[in-house]
Amino acid sequence: MGCVFAKQTTSSSAPAATSEIVKRDRDRDRDSGLSVRSGGGEVVVNNTGGGDAAEESGVDQRGEKDRSSRRRRSKPNPRLSNPPKNVLGEQVAAGWPAWLSAVAGEAINGWTPRRADTFEKIDKIGQGTYSNVYKAKDTMTGKIVALKKVRFDNLEPESVKFMAREILILRRLDHPNVVKLEGLVTSRMSCSLYLVFEYMEHDLAGLAASPTIKFTEPQVKCYMHQLLSGLEHCHNRHVLHRDIKGSNLLLDNDGGLKIADFGLASFFDPNHKQPMTSRVVTLWYRPPELLLGATDYGVGIDLWSAGCILAELLAGKPIMPGRTEVEQLHKIFRLCGSPSEEYWKKSKLPHATIFKPQQSYRRCIRETFKDFPPSSLPTIDTLLAIDPAERLTATAALGSEFFTTEPYACDPSSLPKYPPSKEMDAKLRDEEARRLRAAAKSNADGAKKARTRERSARAIAAPEANAELQTNLDRRRLITHANAKSKSEKFPPPHQDGTLGYTLSSSNHMHMDPSFDPPDVPFSSNFSYGKEPIQTWSGPLVEPGPMRKSSKSKTSGRSKEK
Fold first, then answer.
1. Distances from the Cα of 462 to the Cαs of 53, 440, 467, 468, in angstroms?
2. What is the pTM of this model?
């Protein structure tokens, strides 16, 4: 049916131009303090727009000005440019569909097609609102791979550009702790695209959900060292992940950890910041500045999420499992303390006056996690700083006391080999447990239901009597809600929000202070959240978008999501 698979190859056209582009990219990264490989797999995201002319000016008195100008011109640009007509024609002739080349020609440039029927699907291992993930076999090599199928809405250019950005980012990254994109599978006839990845047997969410697995301190250090190493590479390559959580951290049987799912990732330039959406990062790992509406942020958002992961691995359960944005902020302030007045003034966050707590909270991280290894407390304390400017960078965290004191991180090869486990497996176990509870309740109420049937010819089924049907209805409602969101910056599907993989009552490892989980305390605004939202093992099933105001302010205008 005209399906093709793409694998990375060296381009045979215009070698001189390619060499010049790679040289320009290397010069740009040298200005930013980066080291660049000399290999030919480099992907250039933007045109420097005259940077060479500035470099050749040779005017000494303007040296600093020229260097500053070059840095501004060479910022990573997430917007894709349309390919020249001759390149578009070459890509279509090579087997790429015109709808993909016209919008995402830059993302697929230098890759060659291969037929998709050389892949054999084995099992479905993941599912989201916009994509499904399959375990598959490359019938030509015998290698096991992961196929991520992404569906587009009627081939809308914005949807295709959204996926093209993920492809560009993945091609730009090359690190042992970042998942590797091995190719693409697409069809001339359908509105879908497959991303081909190396296959990983586990994710951290799936392992963490297992009641039989307990991570030791050396194992936690090993996983965290790999996570921070991967983040260090991403940030050095000017990439923000923007959705660090357990289900996006993949593990193989050799103990290797790789950061995956760059669907929400974005390029950034620390020297030339541009507004970005605050609707990123899964709720339980979202930093306070995003909850307060920040659009000018940097690597600190990924480091906050990493701090949450570290504390969860040591605690055996999520440390701040909020059900709504308001409750999440409340939990953050209860643990990390209220922001100072100076922070409120300098941040100028859009929701600062709305969500400012009525009472002041004292920071109590060390008291709450007093049973953690002493060397971990300074690292957690700094990663979970309210002010992102005070958080550790990935490089600084790797050199912290946590990794330089005994017991040291174990070697990845010494980690236990677990049976294959994914977040989806944990969800299936949770659904099975719910069905068993529903069946038990149905049997206990058998006599009462029999009397009900005697009085009525047609009994009304209890909602919990068919958990599978209810799950499908919930999923359909959530998909409808998700499709209403902006195509350019999609938020993680609500039913995947908060997915680390622990049950809310789990306490496999070390324990937190039981007094930490406080009763609900109102903020200074009229916003409120429901007391009984639908919950699953992985976090909030339904996360309301704009929080509800009191009846007096229902007619007032709502702020638009950026």
1. 73, 13, 10, 13
2. 0.65
pLDDT tens across 123-162, in order? 998 887 678 899 999 988 999 999 998 877 666 777 788 8
Burial of 19 (0-12, 13-18, 19+ CB in 10 A): exposed
What are the DSSP calls for 55-74, one per residue?
A: HT---GGGHHHHHHHHHHHT
Average pLDDT of span 82-102: 59
Asked whether residue 14 carries a pLDDT value surpassing 60, the answer given is no
Q: How far apart are CA 415 and CA 290, in angstroms?
A: 35
Residue 307 CB neighbours (<10 A): 27
Known binding residue 148? Answer is yes
Round to whole Å and give the CA distance between 178 and 234.
8
**Could you tell me the pLDDT band of residue 477, with boundaries at 50, 70 and 90?**
very low
**Residue pair 334/288 in contact by the 8 Å Cβ criterion:** no
Q: Which two tokens stand for residue 65?
A: 């000005």
| Paired tokens of 517 | 């989980």
**Length of the chain (residues):** 562
Alpha carbon distances (Å) from 363 to 189, 304, 329, 382: 57, 16, 14, 12
Q: At what angle do helices 15-31 and 63-73 cross, to 10 degrees?
A: 110
Q: Which two tokens stand for residue 169?
A: 């980012």
Q: What 3-state DSSP class applies to 528?
A: strand
390 pLDDT band, cuts 50/70/90, is very high
Q: DSSP secondary structure string, 478-521?
A: HHHHHHTS-SSSPPPPGGGTT-SS--TT---SS---GGGSPPP-
Euclidean distance between CA atoms 254 and 515, whole angstroms: 39
Q: Is the peptide bond before 287 cis (omega within 30 degrees of 0)?
A: no
Q: Confirm or reject CATH 2.30.30.90 for domain 4-47+70-198, answering yes or no.
A: no
546 and 527 Cβ atoms separated by less than 8 Å: no
Comparing CA positions, the residue from 398, 348, 347, 228 lying closest to residue 299 is 228
Residue among 213, 311, 302 nearest 259 (CA): 302
Strands (E), 217-296: 239-240, 249-251, 257-259, 266-267
Is residue 232 over pLDDT 50? yes
What is the pLDDT, as a whole number, of residue 176? 97
The vertex-230 CA angle with 250 and 506, nearest 5°, equals 45
DSSP secondary structure of 402-449: HHHSSSPPPPGGGSPPPPPB-HHHHHHHHHHHHHHHHHHHHHHTHHHH
pLDDT at 55 over 60: no
Q: Classify residue 551 as left (phi > 0), alpha (psi -120 to 50) or beta.
A: alpha
Q: Which residues are known catalytic residues?
A: 243
Closest-CA residue to 222 (of 402, 421, 396): 402
Domain borders along the chain are: 4-47+70-198, 203-414
Could you tell me the fold of the domain covering 203-414?
Answer: Transferase(Phosphotransferase); domain 1 (1.10.510)
pLDDT at 309: 97
Residue 159 CB neighbours (<10 A)? 20
Distances (CA, A) of 360 to 193, 336, 340, 513: 50, 11, 9, 20
